[in-house]
Specification:
14% helix; mainly beta
């Protein structure tokens, strides 16, 4: 989660996720001196050049597309935390996991240059699972409860603080869901378990994941401009960026998975999933500010000016409703303890993610 926060903070500091949004209003002379009033044309032109220069260096990224990318990444970041794939769970398990995901937008992941990703997501979860055969459930036709595993996942936390003099924020993450994994093709092992095929499992359920953040970043930049005819302007630009991602995604997966275990402790698994996503993703950016400067004639201060600045943007979207997804992972299975790493790939949403964690069996 710290990685996700640092990425978001970097984007805010660089002002790089918003295209041509910065405006500077007309300056006013606070003391209304003749010198300052006569220079207002030059002052406003200089401030307009500053506005154009700032906007020229911002890449063109749609805020609505960024909101959609954040929603898609959040949906993918949960994958692998809600279900244990491939393990033969005879009684139950307790586990913990965390995941991160990204939507690279129109470019490749981690591409060099001016291109920036369209969204990031991160999530964590505690996992509880148990064999349905432990419950007094009857066998219904070919459906045997002993071949089903019921999983519950939950996590809720406030975001950790990253100490900085310029940054102030608050936020939270939430993750809650229930899923059932059912073995439709039985396992098969040889040589006393030296090699095992896990059969084929199908999984479905419901999960809700949310992430909200209210972030404030203070900016105080000094500037010094020559206005001509011996006049100059020296001052500061002060503002506070306020960013507010608010994401909530409901997810219903339909998955099929399989895997192999060899040398008793190594397990490799993979599968395909079809995700149905509902929810919303809103990104809001507000940065009211002000330019203040002293006007000099030679070395003598003759007046002061101020000019309002605005950066007011936002975008609301939703994650892709239907996503075809693939996943694969590796496990070190020490009978009562499992360490895993899983890679997730959204084929139709162009998202990428990694989930990792550990589980204890009982």
């Amino acid at each position: 989660m710290r990685l996700v926060l640092r990425v978001i903070f970097t984007l805010i500091v660089s002002k790089a996720i918003w295209a041509k949004p910065f405006t500077v209003g007309n300056a006013t002379c606070l003391n209304n001196t003749a010198v300052c009033t006569s220079l207002l044309g030059s002052i406003n032109q200089q401030l307009k050049d500053v506005e154009n220069l700032v906007n020229k260096n911002l890449p063109d990224v749609d805020a609505k597309r960024f909101a959609q990318g954040m929603g898609n990444a959040m949906a993918l970041a949960t994958k692998g935390q809600m279900v244990d794939y491939g393990s033969n769970i005879k009684f139950g398990l307790l586990g913990v996991g965390a995941g991160v995901a990204m939507d690279p937008g129109e470019g490749r992941p981690f591409a060099q240059g001016k291109h920036l990703p369209a969204g990031f997501g991160g999530q964590a979860s505690l996992l509880l699972g148990f064999n349905l055969g432990l419950l007094p459930l009857p066998k219904i036709g070919p459906v045997d409860p002993k071949r089903g595993i019921l999983f519950f996942n939950f996590f809720a936390a406030n975001l950790p603080k990253i100490p900085t003099q310029e940054l102030d924020y608050e936020g939270s993450v939430f993750n809650l869901g229930a899923h059932v994994r059912y073995n439709i093709v039985e396992r098969y092992s040889v040589a006393f378990g030296l090699f095992e095929w896990t059969g084929i499992d199908v999984t479905s359920g419901l999960n809700y994941s949310s992430f909200d953040l209210t972030l404030k970043y203070k900016v105080n930049e000094a500037f010094d401009y020559d206005l001509g005819s011996g006049s100059s302007m020296k001052g500061t630009y002060a503002t506070t960026f306020r960013l507010g991602p608010d994401i909530g995604v409901f997810n219903i997966p339909l998955e099929a998975s399989t895997g192999v275990k060899f040398l008793w402790i190594f397990r490799v698994y993979g599968g395909l999933g079809l995700d149905f996503n509902l929810g919303s993703s809103e990104i809001a950016l507000r940065a009211p500010g002000e330019l203040k400067a002293d006007i000099y004639q030679g070395t003598t201060k003759v007046d002061e000016i101020q000019a309002p600045t605005t950066l007011n943007l936002g975008g609301t979207s939703s994650p892709d409703f239907l996503v075809l997804r693939g996943f694969g992972g590796v496990q070190l299975d020490f009978a009562v303890l499992n360490i895993f790493l899983q890679y997730n790939l959204g084929f139709t949403s162009n998202t990428y993610g990694i989930t990792y964690g550990l589980r204890a069996y009982f």
